[in-house]
Amino acid sequence: MHSRFYNEAAIRISLLPESPLLIKAGGGGLSDIDPTLPDMSFVRCYNAEEEVETIYIPGSSLRGVLRSYAEKLIRSIDPSQACQITSKSCISLKRLNESKLNGPEAYLNSCYACRLFGNTAIASRVRVSDLMPQGPVRTEIRYGVAIDRVTGAVAHGPFEMEVV
Hints:
Layout: E1 44-47, E2 52-55, H1 59-77, H2 93-98, H3 103-108, H4 112-117, E3 140-147, E4 154-163
Antiparallel strand pairs: 1-2, 3-4
């Protein structure tokens, strides 16, 4: 059953940001190591082809956006067939965890988004690779401050962020 692909599609996309974009590195990022770097820096990796460090968009970030939009579409058609936002879990996940279901039963007891993007009981059917830049990338440092919506005072800041 798993030895062949019966339905497969490869979709290539190009992302051209129209406004500044920031996808933060996890944790404190490089600013924990080097205080001269911005507080929020773009996620980076080593590009072996060009032998330089470059920014990129992790596939998991794009996959999360795709799943969120798919859940929104499913919820607009039938709210009972999508994961509940407040519980942060699949509507059938409790049933999946209470009884040890095999693969086909777990699939049938999952919502449509979990059937496509996976959950703790079944694997995802969607794979999204990292988005690497094509050509030169221009970054800039922006300065900001977080305002508390209740008190109107400074909640955090000032801070620096690196945007593309």
